[in-house]
Write a structure and sequence with these properties.
Elements: H1 2-31, H2 40-55, E1 60-65, E2 77-80, H3 86-91, E3 98-103, H4 104-107, H5 112-118, E4 122-124, H6 129-144, E5 148-151, H7 169-177, E6 181-187, E7 204-210, H8 224-236
Parallel strand pairs: 1-7, 2-5, 2-6, 3-4, 3-5
Antiparallel strand pairs: 6-7
Length: 238
Amino acid sequence: MRQTLLSIIVWFVIVSLTILLFFVMALVSVLLFPFDRKRKFTHAQCFWWTDAVTALNPYWDVKVYGLDNIDQNKAYVAVLNHQSLADIVLMYKTKMQFKWVAKESLFKIPVLGWNMLLAKHIRLRRSKFSSIKKVYKEASVWLRNGISVAFFPEGTRNNDAAVGEFQNGAFKLAIKEKVPILPILIQGTRDAIPKGSWRFTTRISCLIKVLPSIDTSVYLPAEYNRLRDLTREQLCGN
């Protein structure tokens, strides 16, 4: 009974904070529209949101490492392993300016999807070649304007703790645009959001660790697979 009641409270807090975030982001977007075309200030509202969500969830113990590996004045292709939707919450703990490359279905989730639209994240329609081309064109524009782009190169959430095989797109893009790869390791979030139930039952230790960036200037376009494998090895080795 106690766990059920506490789970209801936790979900109420998360949903309430996300709804509040939407109204704040919408207000900031309207008020600062002429001065914030990159939606930096709109995006920055997610920073207090992630701090509040993680601090007020008694089932999450979140630790953050490696923030000194981020140059906030530099654009990166950020590469993260993927375990659950909680990965999205943790990524904002880096306080980076970035745009997600996210599957279209996330944009259709009420409130959460609206927030993603307000922040101008990049929508991917899977299995549509024209959409994939549009995604990389849009990502290139953001990188050239000094905004990082974040990828889950596994393509989908992994069902176990191991890092899955990586797709090639993020690495081709980083070499083409001559921007560093920023590997970001996430651990513990696989069980952070209950599967098959809405109840939180156990305390979870979650970790987000930013690894040193990888210079892509030494790679030729045809060497994207070498860059991909090096990035995956670094994530697997930490």
